[in-house]
Amino acid sequence: MAQTVLAVKNLTKKYQSQLVFENLNFEIKEGDIVALIGKNGAGKSTFINIVNQLIKPTSGESIFFGKKKLDRNRIGLMMQTSFNFNRITVKEAIQLFRSYYTHPLPYETLIKMAELEGFEKHYMTRLSGGQRRRLQFALTLAGDPDFIFLDEPTTGMDPDSRVKFWKRIDDLKKQGKTFIITSHYLEELEEVANRFLFLHNHHIIFDGGLEDIHRYFSQTQVNFSSPLDEKTFQALPTVSKVREMNHNYQLLVADMKAFLPEFAKHIGEIDNLEIKNQTLNTVMDEVISKED
User: Fold this and answer.
1) Cβ contacts of 258 within 8 Å, gap of 6 or more
2) Tens digits of per-residue pLDDT, 190-248?
3) pLDDT at position 291, please?
4) For residue 290, what pLDDT band results from cuts at 50, 70 and 90?
5) Which of 15, 78, 97, 263 has its CA 20 to 30 A from that of 46?
6) Which letter does DSSP use for residue 40 in this model?
7) Residue 274: which of 213, 203, 226 has the closest Cα?
C-alpha cells in the first residue's frame, strides 16, 4: 500500500477579513500526480506556499513524510514566476543550487534536463522565457526531491518543449516521485495527472480521478456551426448549456438518446458536427458554475 507523503489537516488561510480557503483536509500518496485546479485567485499558489512553509497558515497544518518539520532535501518547488540572478551564468546557478542539498543530482544530468547545453556560460538574464522555465525546473530537481511542486510550470514554453517537459514528469513518476501541479493548460494535465483537486469558493469541491470526473459529469459535448438562433438549441431536450460565438456552437447534453431525435430535425442547417466527451476545461466550468 502506498505511503502517505502529505497530510493536510484543517488548513485555513485568511488575510485580515479576506478568506482564501478554510478547513482543507486530504492526503496524498507516494507516486501520485495531483492536479490542483481552480480559477485565478482561488488560492492555489497560496496553498503551495503554505505547505512549503514560505507563509504561515491561519490555522491547521501540513505534515510531510509523517513530520511537521519540512525536510527541504526531499522537497522541490518550482514557483509560478520565473526568477533571474543578475551576473550569474547558467552553470553557476546550477552549481549554486546543487550546493544547497545533501545528495544533489549530477551537474551533467541537470544541464541536460534544462536542454541548455551550449548555454552554460550565458547569463540567466540573456535566456528566453522558455529557457528560464526549463532552467528553473532543473534547479527544482537539483536536490533529487521525493515530492515536487510545480506551479504553472510550462508557462512561456513552446509546444515542443511542453511535450518534452511532460514526458520528463512521466519518467519521474516511474521513479516514485510525487507531484502537485497547477496549470492553465488543463488538456495537458488530463494526460499526466491521476488525481484532480478542484479548489473553489474556499474549499475542495471535487477530489477524484479522470474516470471519476467523466462518471460524475456524464454530459456529452456537441460542437457544430449553424445559422440558426441560439434559442433553437437551448430548447432541445437535456441541453444544460449552450455556448455560441459567430454561429459556432458548443452544447452540453445530459442524455443523447433524448437529444438526438430533436436535434436531427435541424441537421440540414448543421455543419462541422463533432460529438465527444467533455474536456477537463468544460468540466471545471460546470463544477464552478454549480458552486457559484
Assistant:
1) 237, 238
2) 889 999 999 988 999 889 988 887 777 668 889 999 999 999 999 999 998 899 999 99
3) 53
4) low
5) 97
6) T
7) 226
Cell numbers describing residue 109: 544530468
pLDDT tens by residue, 161-194: 999 999 999 999 999 999 999 998 888 898 899 9
pLDDT at 138: 96
User: Among candidates 247, 249, 244, which has minimal Cα distance to 274?
Assistant: 249
Give percent of the chain above pLDDT 90. Answer: 74
Give the cell for residue 115. Answer: 536542454
Instruction: Give residue 228's identity as a one-letter amino acid code.
Output: L
Query: What is the value of pTM for the model shown?
Result: 0.81
Angle at 100 between CA 99 and CA 101, to 5 degrees: 95
Q: What is the pLDDT of residue 206?
A: 87
Please name the helix (run of DSSP H) or strand (run of DSSP E) that holds residue 11, with its range, or none. Answer: strand 4-15
User: Closest by alpha carbon to 146, among 109, 97, 198, 101?
Assistant: 101
Distances (CA, A) of 256 to 216, 230, 241: 16, 19, 14
Q: What is the mean pLDDT of residues 67-92?
A: 90
Spell out the alpha helix ranges (H) of the chain: 44-51, 90-98, 107-113, 129-140, 159-174, 186-192, 210-216, 230-234, 256-264, 280-291
- Nearest C-alpha neighbor of 88 from the set 127, 115, 118: 127
Helices and strands (DSSP H and E) totals, the chain: 10, 13
User: Are the CB atoms for 47 and 4 separated by under 8 Å?
Assistant: no
d(CA 51, CA 196): 18
Residue found by looking up cell 432541445 in the block: 236
